[in-house]
Design a protein that fits this description.
There is one protein chain. Helix 6 links the parallel strand 5 and strand 6. This protein has a seven-stranded parallel sheet with strand order 3-2-1-4-5-6-7, sandwiched between helices. The chain has one domain: Rossmann fold (3-Layer(aba) Sandwich). The protein is built from twelve helices and seven strands. The N and C termini lie far apart (50 Å). The protein is of the alpha/beta class. Helix 3 runs parallel beside helix 5.
Length: 297
């Protein structure tokens, strides 16, 4: 790739995307951070200025649910920088709820951002990478795409879809010299995560499922990964001489992804049948090697 590396990071107005934009610019990259409105870019600009990299961080308008918006953003970045070396599909939304109770329309909204948004961005950027015979596409998934986090059915569905989409894309682009990778973060400290308290329980039957969901995140938020960890992984994905498809970071990420292949389907289903919360925590820890007990457990 040419120098400096030119990157487009979606969802850069907050959280992981914003931190990655500034951190990668500090490593010498030229970064275009996308957001639905430039009004949302104040914090990104301030962080870039504080880090002394305001000349290497540029906000660009892009709504990943709008194909025309994506195409305009990619054309704008390409016209300004000449190319896009790295596409980081980071834009995403959460979604709590159990399968029985989440309206189909809500599934569609989440898939439109978390999955179709990736497709739109890949379709806009991949042709130039393929024609040049180089480039890197990085999709930000989640450990919820590795294990089906209870109480997050629509989010899990979207992140499992990202797993399959990325796996297929990696083979499709391999012959053209374009590297494709998937990041599966565990719990990373962001403002959005701390606000993830939605527990729609219309039937009243799923209180246990939500208690377990929030217990998991409460344990993670006691010692969460830092967003800069994701930036470090992105940098390694692009620069390593030993590429691989899947990467992880954050609290619980390495443990859960390493343990999942050794947890049988039967053990996973049996975990859900445990009615005592403390027994559930003990069994989860035994299966995954990750302590999800909390101080008030």
């Amino acid at each position: 790739m040419g120098s400096p590396i030119i990157a487009l990071i979606t969802g850069a107005n907050s959280g992981i995307g914003r931190s990655a934009a500034v951190d990668l610019a500090a490593k010498g990259w030229t970064v275009y951070g996308s957001m639905r409105s430039l009004d949302k870019g104040g914090r990104l600009a301030a962080m870039a200025a504080d880090a002394g990299v305001e000349d290497r961080v540029h906000a660009v308008v892009c709504d990943v649910t709008d194909t025309e918006s994506v195409n305009r953003a990619v054309a704008e970045v390409t016209a300004d920088a000449g190319r896009i070396d790295v596409l980081v599909n980071n834009a995403g939304v959460g979604g709590n709820g159990v399968t029985e109770e989440v309206p189909v329309e809500r599934y569609a909204e989440i898939m439109d951002v978390n999955v179709y948004g990736i497709v739109r961005c890949v379709q806009a950027v991949a042709p130039q990478m393929r024609e040049r015979g180089e480039g890197c596409i990085i999709n930000v998934g989640s450990v919820a795409g590795v294990i089906a986090a209870v109480g997050q059915a629509p989010y899990v569905a979207s992140k499992w879809a990202v797993e399959g989409l990325t796996e297929g894309l990696a083979q499709e682009m391999a012959e053209f010299g374009v590297r494709v990778a998937l990041i599966e973060p565990g719990v990373v400290r962001t403002a959005i995560l701390a606000k993830n308290t939605d527990a729609p329980n219309d039937s009243g039957a799923y209180g246990r499922a939500y208690r377990r969901l929030f217990r998991f995140y409460q344990a993670g938020l006691a010692n969460p990964g830092h967003p800069s960890e994701v930036a470090d992984v992105i940098h390694e994905i692009v620069t390593t001489d030993e590429p691989k498809l899947r990467w992880t970071c954050g609290w619980g990420g390495p443990e859960l992804t390493a343990a999942k292949p050794n947890v049988s389907d039967e053990d996973w289903v049996a975990l859900g049948a445990i009615t005592d919360d403390d027994e559930y925590v003990a069994r989860f820890t035994e299966l995954f090697g990750l302590d999800i007990s909390t101080p008030d457990s």
